[in-house]
Write a structure and sequence with these properties.
The complex is a heterodimer. Chain A has a domain of 221 residues. Helices cover 77% and strands 1% of the residues of chain A. Chain A has a two-stranded antiparallel sheet. In chain A, strand 1 and strand 2 form a beta hairpin. Chain B has one domain. Chain B has a two-stranded antiparallel sheet with strand order 1-4. Chain B has a two-stranded antiparallel sheet with strand order 2-3. In chain B, helix 2 runs antiparallel to helix 3 and helix 6 packs antiparallel against helix 9. Helices cover 74% and strands 4% of the residues of chain B. Classes of the chains: A mainly alpha, B mainly alpha.
């Protein structure tokens, strides 16, 4: 008798939990749907599917074809503006900005293993610095770009120094607080930042009198910056510095005992990562033409963090895939818009349970997982 | 003015303290920040509105017992949600790297916010306390020398104190409370002594969620307006309160909550109202730099 009733338990519970919020009809429907799933699970090879998803791996491409695949990808990326209409080009640019952001955050979270939840503050620093430099001083975009990166870098230093001693959750909360403080100051410092209205009519990029404000131009600028960031991280990954970062992530005390200067490394990770965000912030300001505190909320930081985690920490292709997926998929499912965030939240939790290593894990991490599992 | 701010701070602080207790209990056992805890508080506020709706439909909303029914309904349902979230989203991740449950909690937080938004609407919901309390109670208060205390404020402070007292007694005096303390100290040893770890962890989540829901009900009574994103800021401040008081310490969370409420009330009154959300973070950073274990925290934490 008990075993026969067992499949009913979860659907019934779901119905009870949902009932006050959603009313009798919706909660009964949800319970029935879950019951269907539970029964289907008994008939279908669910276990096999789940473990397949856990272990799935992209097919390795052999040497000769690898070069061809890279060339095809390069051609595709270069030719994309020709094929896309304005709307999809805009999505592609946004995806590019987030890819670079996620790659930047990956330095702190993926390589150094420091959980930072206020990453968007550096992005805001870059965006506002270009907005101010452009509207007050009419500074050229390409000159403002390094200045925005520099300001964000200083922000990174400012956050890095007091938090050197903190680890794990404490660091997460302090960085979260830092991000909130930056946003609240932007929102209230009316004389400089324009308060909640933000700063408008920011100049589009131009070079030597040549206007580069069209979406296609922006696309190539973003593409170049993405490649630059990916290259930077690829080089960092294989370098002495990158290995020191990973050593610090795995065991800080042991790394220090081996002569790794963890203080310098942490600050370096913060600064490089912040500089990437600052650069992309300036690009964002140029793309939108206006900035306001609304674009720099905590959820943006969470979004970027999710890109890193869903794609696969410390894995460059993984992070790129994660960022592209999180920007492009919601656009593709516009008709499900209301349910978008609901599904997004649930899949974040599901991802952690079923495939914590990410969609495309780094080689190092994949080996660890297989060893451990 | 001074006394008035003190009283406002006490009201706000007792709300923060109630939420902070959930963070501190969970952190004490699992060493994990339950980012979805703020959403449970938000759920509590919504369940209060729903319960009031049901009571009004039945026509029993003017009973003397009605406020108690509202708060119990909200606490029971929010506790059920809290326990379920633990079972589904956190339990499978207990052995996982520390980042995994945190991300999962963020996901749950997004999920709950959007669930409430979809089912209850994105606009502010009104808690019509005139349906629950007589007019003289809603608008009246005690005039003390130097300040004015509304009956609602007295209700908030008294209810929170009562709940906190109850929790303290439960943790210190009962078998289950002792088991909770044992699990927080040493999980493996507690398991060897025959304590059902899973049940104790679930109990921790259920208790914390019920307290957060009570805070949500009190806030709904106080301000009258509820929105699906109130959980984020309140949850954050309550977590800061837990850290300031010393995470893992139950009296510390109460003290931290009161301290934070006072700081916010005095900051808003004497410094600047626009920056009232910043004070909490400034206090947090100061505490972490000067005394990272918090006011009442254990050095080893």
């Amino acid at each position: 008798m008990r075993t026969a009733l067992k499949p009913l338990a979860w659907p019934l519970w779901l119905g009870i939990l949902l009932w006050p919020l959603a009313g009798p009809v919706t909660s009964a429907a949800a319970a029935a749907a879950l019951l269907g799933l539970v029964l289907a699970r008994r008939l279908l090879p669910w276990k096999a599917a789940a473990s397949g998803f856990q272990a799935a791996r992209l097919p390795a491409i052999a040497g000769r074809w690898r070069a061809a695949a890279w060339a095809a990808l390069a051609c595709l990326l270069l030719a994309l503006p020709l094929a896309l209409n304005r709307y999809f080009l805009d999505v592609a640019i946004t995806a590019g900005i987030y890819i670079a952001l996620a790659l930047g955050l990956n330095i702190i979270v993926g390589l150094a293993g420091l959980l930072v939840l206020g990453y968007i503050a550096f992005y805001a620093a870059g965006a506002y610095s270009y907005a101010l430099l452009s509207t007050h001083l009419h500074l050229n975009f390409f000159l403002a770009l390094p200045l925005g990166a520099g300001l964000a870098l200083l922000f990174g230093l400012a956050l890095g120094v007091p938090t050197l001693r903190l680890r794990g959750d404490y660091l997460a909360i302090v960085t979260l607080g830092f991000g909130e403080i930056v946003r609240i100051v932007l929102n209230n410092w009316d004389s400089v930042t324009g308060g909640p209205n933000g700063i408008m009519s920011i100049a589009k990029p131009s070079l030597a009198g040549l206007a580069l404000g069209r979406p296609a131009h922006l696309y190539y600028i973003v593409l170049a910056l993405c490649l630059l960031t990916a290259l930077l991280i690829h080089r960092l990954n294989g370098s002495r510095l990158g290995r020191a970062l990973v050593a610090m992530r795995e065991d800080e005390a042991a790394a220090r005992a081996c002569g790794v200067d963890t203080v310098r490394l942490k600050l370096l990770a913060f600064m490089v990562s912040a500089a990437v965000a600052g650069t992309m912030g300036a690009v964002f300001a140029a793309k939108m033409g206006f900035v306001s505190p609304e674009s720099f909320t905590f959820w943006e930081s969470v979004m970027v963090l999710c890109m890193v985690v869903l794609g696969g920490m410390a894995s460059i292709p993984g992070v790129i895939l994660g960022a592209a997926a999180l920007i492009v998929l919601p656009e593709a499912f516009r008709q499900l818009q209301v349910y978008r965030m609901l599904i997004f939240g649930a899949s974040m939790a599901a991802m952690m349970i079923f495939r914590p290593q990410g969609l495309w894990p780094s080689k190092r991490r994949r080996m660890e997982m297989e060893e451990g599992g | 003015m001074l006394l008035q701010q003190l009283l406002n701070g006490l009201t706000l602080g007792s709300i923060y303290a109630l939420i902070a207790l959930g963070y501190t209990m969970v952190y004490g056992i699992l060493e994990f920040i339950n980012f979805a805890h703020g959403e449970v508080y938000m759920l509590g506020a919504y369940f209060a509105i729903i319960a009031l709706g049901i009571l009004t439909q039945w026509g029993v909303n003017t009973w003397t017992m009605a406020p108690l029914l509202v708060i119990v309904f909200a606490m029971v349902f929010a506790a059920a949600w809290g326990g379920t979230v633990e079972r589904i989203a956190y339990r499978p991740l207990r052995a996982a790297p520390r980042l995994s449950p945190l991300i999962s909690a963020l996901g749950v937080s997004i999920f709950l916010q959007n669930l409430v938004m979809l089912t209850q609407g994105a606009r502010d919901q009104v808690f019509r306390r005139e349906l629950l309390f007589p007019h003289s109670f809603n608008t009246g208060g005690l005039a003390l020398p130097g300040c004015q205390v509304s009956y609602i404020q007295i209700t908030i402070i008294a209810t929170s104190l009562l709940l906190m007292l109850g929790l303290t007694l439960f943790i210190n005096r009962t078998r289950l409370g002792r088991a909770m303390r044992a699990v927080a100290q040493d999980q493996r040893m507690a398991r060897l002594c025959g304590i059902n770890i899973d049940a104790i962890i679930r109990l921790t989540f259920v208790l914390g969620s019920a307290l957060a829901a009570a805070a949500g009900v009190l806030v709904a009574m106080h301000y009258g307006l509820v929105n699906f994103h109130i959980g984020y800021v309140a949850g954050l401040k309550a977590f800061i309160a837990a850290v300031v008081g010393g995470i893992g310490s139950v009296p510390g969370a109460m003290l931290g909550g009161l301290l934070l409420g006072m700081a916010e009330s005095f900051g808003a009154g004497y410094l600047s109202c626009e920056y009232k959300d910043v004070y909490a973070f400034v206090i947090l950073i100061a505490v972490l730099l000067i005394r990272p274990q918090g006011i009442m925290g254990d050095k080893s934490q």
